[in-house]
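Sample log: CBM-cenC domain-containing protein.
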Amino acid sequence: MRRALRGAVTAAVLATLLAAPFAPASAADLRIANGGFDSGLTGWSGSHSPGGVDAAVWDGRTTARVTDADPAAAYGRESMPGLPATAGTAYTLHAEVWADSGTAHLYLRFRDSSGRLLTGGANASATGRRWSRVTASGVAPTGTATVSALIYSGVADVGTAYWDEVLITKNVTDLGVQIESSVPNATTFAGASAYAVYTGTVDANPQLAVIDVATEQVTRKITIPDSAATPTVGGWAAATATDGSVYLGTYPNSKLYRYVPGQSTITDLGRAEGGYSFIWDLEPGAGGKVYGGTYNDGRYFKYDNGAFTTIGTVPIAAGAQYVRSLAHDPAANATYLGTGTNAALTRYDNVTGQTDSLLPAAYAHNSMVGGLTWTGGRLFAKVDGTLLVLRVTRDADGSYSATTDAAIEDVDLHHSPARDGKVWLVKDGLLHSYDVATASLHATSVRPGLSVTGYTWSGGTLVGLGAATDGTRIFKYDPASGSWSSRVVTGTPVLPAAINALGTGPDGRVYTGGYLTGGTGVYDPLRGDGDDGLPDTPTRTGLSQTDSLLAHDGLLYIGAYPSAKLYSHDPARPWPPTLRYTAGEAGSRADDCEPGKGPPPQDRPYALAGGPDGTVYMGTVPKYGKRSGALTVWKEGTAGRTLCVVPDQSVVSLAYAGGKVFGGTSTRGALGVDPVYAPGASATLFSYDPATGAVRRHPLPLTAPKAVTALAEVDGELWGLAGGSLFTLDPARPEAITATRLFADPDYAARSSLAWRDGVLLSVAQDPGHVYGTAGDQIFKIDKSTRAVTVLLTAPGAEGLTADGFGHLYYKINERLYRLATPLP
């Protein structure tokens, strides 16, 4: 397993942390044993004068009661033995206390390996007949071996205090993996086994699982090798060659791998030519050959006898970035190529090099042709949401053309090889058969309950393997009898999923959404376990890739890719969330916010904001090959609507301020647009008036900004980040914008993804004098009065920002969640 570079701190830090350098982050939460006094005073040793402390229930809580009636005595209890601590590391201690009378004190204590108390501790105190949170912070002095908490009533103090929820954290905590995945991205079959690819992360290699079809058991798991220079994260392509070898195509290094069934290792065959990043599909050819297609140079290639060969032109179809799907006709030695992002379907003769375009004209405005299968003498082509069944014929002039036998909507990506004149597929969740001879579709009552990544036939039984909410499932159906089964395959690889989005829910927990494979992690601040290699709570399934999170009116709103789906979840109710709106179903694939036309279907919901009337606003990046993002407006009891706001630009940040919704745009369109950034365009700020529906643009006093990646309402003002600049304005006078340069602009040419989601601005209730933010691997705070910036942390790959109820900050690096403790000013 690879391990990415951890977050080394290289910039100025908070004043209380400057007393000593950062210690390396290490495993997960520090948990004070019995910090909530649920087990009485177990784990809390006597300190100072005997007595004075007992266990008591107060205000419905289990507490430690400190009773001090003697002004000449001191009473207290210390959490002993202490927790492991490192000299030079800052620690922050929190506790809740009800000071029924007098003053209550909380101390942070450091001891050496012999238990001797060292100097350098810190303390905090509280008064008042209510629950209050007290915080003490300090840097561990030289010689520190342990850290502990002391609840205390000192000499000259008199009073009674009730203590609860004593929690501690160090300055930087690696909270580890938050989300796990156990579903395949690609499947092929060889002999009596299924071969399934399980995607990993930058830190964790993907794996190949061998699954016995008859027993439905995993018989072998093999880690897919790579190198530090060209790490392999995952794969979407798998095929079985005519010689029985299994081939895998991966990303982001465009590598081809071969596995010989029965062996214990996988062979790395190298990169499949060029500088592209994905092998999207593989198809077997005669004599053990394998054909493949790539992103982002639209290349069609062959692997034969140890050598890669590029076939035809690059790209294989004019303007293609994706060769998204392949189908091979072995009798004609012809390969069908599905390309995008302007959809095209090409027949390529591997003998003569002749190319013929087959896509019906009605689908030319679509973005992608995927899920190609040549079976039963027909070509099955998935064009966005439609499955076309095409009859390919040779014309009198020697060219080839296609006639559409059927166009089937709402069909899953994969479909079976033909058998007895029928092809099997899942439509609207139900298994259907398609009769090739009559071009008719027939539904069964069978619900397989999985997204199939590969089909085969085992005798007369249809077998499908794929992803379900509860893991990997294998599906079997006997067409003769109608009997069927769908079972979870146990023992499949369980791999971490990279964190794609994070946010704090209305319940105070930190939610994380998984990249590519989906899944949701839930972390209870300062109450996690001590293992940073496993999630603190079981991964919640049922959602695809999460792009944004918003706590609003007691609900958690979730923006998910693909098709820009908006979900809501009440933390008090069972998971999964409720689907509220799908912006991918809005608009027309033929439109791109041209004058007089509406938005294209939307795909990536990077921005969410809430209005005071319960309305939720969603800003999006469009579907592949389009430039115009949109603003979605949704409220309970309404159908919701998706609106064009700034043509040719995506909407990547939102904030509600001064009675209007403000949005920030990016000049980067969807994947597949060329050039990546709209020529001559400048990102801008716009406002949407919920009362009138009016949209106004507010140009920024900056030179050709690429993106406005963060917006936030701050004390009635609107604050935003555009590249390395901060801008602020009064929502009542949006034309008067003040801009301040904070940092150099990101390198958008090298890292175009930054133009979608680089920045965050965040207010933290515990620190009303500052705004916190992140941009370009840095976490910083801005003084509200002076606009002075203090960089708190710089860590390669650091992204995202949210805060817990203690005021601490959370960010992510790949699949790992980190906490940066922020002691109060």
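Observation: The chain has a mean pLDDT of 93.
Observation: The CA atoms of residues 36 and 164 lie 5 Å apart.
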